[in-house]
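Good morning,

Attaching, inline, the backbone tokens for the sequence recovery test we're adding to the shared suite. The designed sequence is right after.
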């Protein structure tokens, strides 16, 4: 980078140079990788970052505690519910589709031997949220752990969004999270009990993203709520954090965000770790953040994305595709441009 700065090279010039040079220098057209793919759709470096799917916390970490999880019937919610139950927690999963919840609850309880209760709840309805928490309180007592996982999202050009489309996403993601958090929090305050809240957001709350503007806006609001309550309600013994996951393939989310499958096929090219995440990896991080092992962490959003947000945020990062041969050719071009610039300056 020092050699680029010394001749005043700007990023736009560098990328332009790359585009103009591809035909002249075939070395620029090859991606700089080595070895075989770890598995279909992954980069070779993925073998250095294998997912660990076993529980990271000790058995019975959550014995005697109760977790209330929204959207717990499928995908990430099911993964978190399974791990918390495995580690001893009483678990309540709440969402709209009762049949799906009941099937999931039976599967988890059969696997872990611990009780899992399914509660039908429309998170957009404050009275339904209150009723679901009534069920939790009657069965297990107030929840010690509240995980806001319910989400809604789809891809669309923003100019095609109807007011109802915008309202649907923000009602589920932002308002729903607020209804659950405030209702549970008020009950815990009244009972003089602490608790820990975790919300699942996304990495593009920080950068924004086209084609998912309702989700980006709503999840950014969830992160602001998290920071605000971490400051205000710590005095009541409560912690608030978020996880912002990168791409983790689940049927529900990917059917709306990647209906053609093209994103998943190319994802490893945008992720420094060379692969997408696994549900069990997120569940492990979530279990840590809602455990006493993280009792000094509050008001934070932790990105878990294999480095993809960092890769996509840097203008020079596409240079990772240049081979060693290509860098030799670029260096020649830079020296040539530098000489031409000095020659012009000398004439002036």
């Amino acid at each position: 980078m020092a050699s680029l700065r010394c001749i005043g090279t700007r990023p736009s010039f560098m990328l332009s140079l790359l585009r103009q040079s591809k035909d002249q220098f075939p070395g620029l057209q090859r991606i700089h990788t080595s070895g075989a793919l770890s598995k279909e759709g992954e980069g070779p470096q993925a073998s250095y970052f294998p997912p660990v799917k076993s529980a990271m916390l000790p058995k019975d970490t959550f014995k005697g505690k109760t977790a209330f999880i929204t959207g717990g019937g499928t995908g990430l919610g099911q993964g978190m519910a399974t791990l918390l139950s495995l580690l001893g927690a009483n678990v309540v999963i709440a969402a709209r589709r009762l049949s799906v919840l009941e099937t999931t609850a039976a599967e988890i309880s059969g696997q872990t031997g611990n009780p899992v209760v399914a509660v039908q709840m429309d998170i957009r309805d404050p009275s339904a949220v209150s009723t679901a928490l009534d069920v939790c309180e009657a069965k297990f007592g107030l929840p010690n752990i509240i995980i806001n996982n319910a989400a809604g999202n789809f891809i669309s050009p923003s100019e095609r969004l109807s007011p109802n489309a915008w309202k649907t996403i923000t009602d589920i993601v932002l308002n729903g999270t607020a209804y659950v958090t405030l209702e549970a929090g008020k009950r815990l305050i009244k009972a003089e009990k602490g608790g820990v809240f975790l919300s699942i957001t996304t990495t593009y709350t920080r950068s924004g993203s086209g084609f998912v503007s309702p989700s980006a806006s709503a999840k950014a609001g969830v992160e602001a709520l998290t920071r605000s309550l971490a400051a205000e309600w710590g005095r009541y013994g409560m912690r608030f954090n978020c996880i912002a996951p990168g791409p983790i393939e689940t049927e529900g989310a990917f059917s709306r965000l990647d209906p053609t499958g093209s994103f998943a096929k190319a994802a490893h090219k945008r992720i420094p770790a060379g692969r997408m995440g696994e549900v069990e990896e997120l569940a492990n991080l979530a279990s840590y953040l809602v455990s006493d092992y993280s009792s000094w962490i509050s008001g934070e959003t932790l990105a878990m994305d294999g480095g993809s947000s960092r890769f996509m945020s840097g203008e020079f990062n596409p240079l990772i595709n240049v081979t060693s041969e290509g860098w030799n050719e670029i260096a020649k071009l830079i020296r040539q441009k530098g000489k031409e610039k000095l020659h012009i300056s000398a004439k002036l």
